[in-house]
């Protein structure tokens, strides 16, 4: 993970806030758990989310949580189905880094505003050493693997809805995740952003799909606004996308939504994805430490509760956003 | 991904012919007959394990494991110094590489690691890290290479056990042994140590049932310390079922541990007798 150097004193401060102070206060019959930014253990930072902000994509979302900044763009293209799964479409995840030190941006902004994008690309690899070369690659693989695992079951995403003509044509959805800034809790942020982006994805409507002498022939609707919203496509009311949740385990206690500093202090963490129906579609342990069986069970239960709550809130917010319709003002990066 | 020019990679697009065979045309019911398993095991029964160390003479430590038809070989090499890119590293590192042999699965694998193998490498690394005293060899890296010769299910669990035995065989300081096992979940069935066909079945959800538990859990643990070192779950399973499954898996991991210990004792005894 990103290089944040903390002294042992700082680490102890963070750990005791979560762990030791709690037991002392419990003794005084005073319930509180403190984290260094004033949150409780199972509390999230506030999030900002915006969907459909990139005109060239079929669906997009930008998520801001703490200092973490994620941009997800979804592209839909035509492809040939896999031979062993002739009536299923394809879904692929790609994760990319554009990590920059805050200092670099400030310097660039002062020089010339127009060059920001250009400069970001140049500085991206050199800014944080941990992301350079293999280290960053590993984490990017990890994130895309976890996403692939989470969306694998039919309960999460029914690939059959992406099929146009069995054996011949299907939709392929490319989910490209761009990490603009890393302020901890990447897995959650990416999970939520991907969910929001998929939720806003519109697939062009196909008016006719026929086989002409063995060759597929596809006709698209002339009206470019004539699209199918991805989730209404699904027969059941249940939403296909889920969301990933990240719990990090410090000392004997566990917390959600860790900041970068808290991630440095932790030895191991559990990433789990929860479906809207309360089932768990993937669990992976990360970090070099091990976990006790009891803690693992407790984390799973807590994860389920928080996951369902967060899922509901997110869906409500997204619904509210769509109610603004096409007149909605897009903020993008001008804020 | 760059293609290695020196290797002949075979035709670009080819598919195994099995997908056109009659098996896939059978109805789901026939395929998912769980009243008995194909190898006459009960649901809770594991396949027999064969474990041997010192199989690769070039490596510092090595192990070969067979679980039923799954065959995995692992070699561990001497620690080597880390290239000093980030300065001095207080903790040592383990580097793991997991690879399916090109002929090990039903579909041929190419020589480069694919996404699944890369993920398994990372899982393997995280399963082993809690067991190894990383502070004992600062700024050094131990390489662990795992090759699956034959994949008949639960190959990740087999790889983890082979790697932990090979590490012990190589004399790498460790807190304890890592054992791992896999369970497949399909509805009410808990299939211990699934074969590759059973894994395939557990990964797919039946067409007309929505509220259905299915999936695969691989759990690696340190039985001597009662700790979980890695969990990898995929599918769609509710929390209670996961809890039950992890209990079964931790119990199984405890049962397997003596196999690894005996194998290591045998190696030491052999070495001792040779010296005499």
UniProtKB/TrEMBL annotation, chain A:
Alphabetic keyword roster: Cytoplasm, Exosome, Membrane, Transmembrane, Transmembrane helix
Look up the record and report any one GO term of the cellular component aspect: nuclear exosome (RNase complex)
Q: Which biological process terms from the Gene Ontology are attached to this UniProt entry?
A: exonucleolytic trimming to generate mature 3'-end of 5.8S rRNA from tricistronic rRNA transcript (SSU-rRNA, 5.8S rRNA, LSU-rRNA); nuclear mRNA surveillance; nuclear polyadenylation-dependent rRNA catabolic process; rRNA catabolic process; TRAMP-dependent tRNA surveillance pathway; U1 snRNA 3'-end processing; U4 snRNA 3'-end processing; U5 snRNA 3'-end processing
Q: Which GO terms describe its molecular function?
A: mRNA 3'-UTR AU-rich region binding
Which stretches are transmembrane?
A: 95-116
Pfam families to which the protein is assigned, alphabetical: RNase_PH, RNase_PH_C
Q: Which InterPro entries match?
A: ExoRNase_PH_dom1, ExoRNase_PH_dom2, ExoRNase_PH_dom2_sf, Exosome_comp_Rrp42_subfam, PNPase/RNase_PH_dom_sf, Ribosomal_Su5_D2-typ_SF
Q: Which stretches make up the Exoribonuclease phosphorolytic domain? A: 43-93, 123-204, 249-303
Just give the chief location class. Answer: cytoplasm
Please name the taxonomic classification of the source: Eukaryota, Metazoa, Ecdysozoa, Arthropoda, Hexapoda
Which protein are we looking at?
Answer: Ribosomal RNA-processing protein 42
Places the protein is found: Cytoplasm; Nucleus, Nucleolus
Family named by the database record:
Belongs to the RNase PH family.
* Domain of life of the native organism: Eukaryota
TrEMBL record, chain B:
Compartment list: Cytoplasm; Nucleus
**One short Pfam family name for this protein?**
RNase_PH
GO annotation, cellular component aspect:
cytoplasmic exosome (RNase complex); nuclear exosome (RNase complex); nucleolus
Q: Which residues form the Exoribonuclease phosphorolytic domain?
A: 45-173
List the CDD domains hit by this protein, alphabetically: RNase_PH_MTR3
Principal localization reads cytoplasm
* Keywords linked to the UniProt accession: Cytoplasm, Exosome, Nucleus, RNA-binding, rRNA processing
Which biological process, per GO, is one annotated for this protein?
nuclear mRNA surveillance
- GO molecular function terms attached to this record: RNA binding
Family, as annotated: Belongs to the RNase PH family.
Which protein is depicted? Answer: Exoribonuclease phosphorolytic domain-containing protein
Species? Frieseomelitta varia
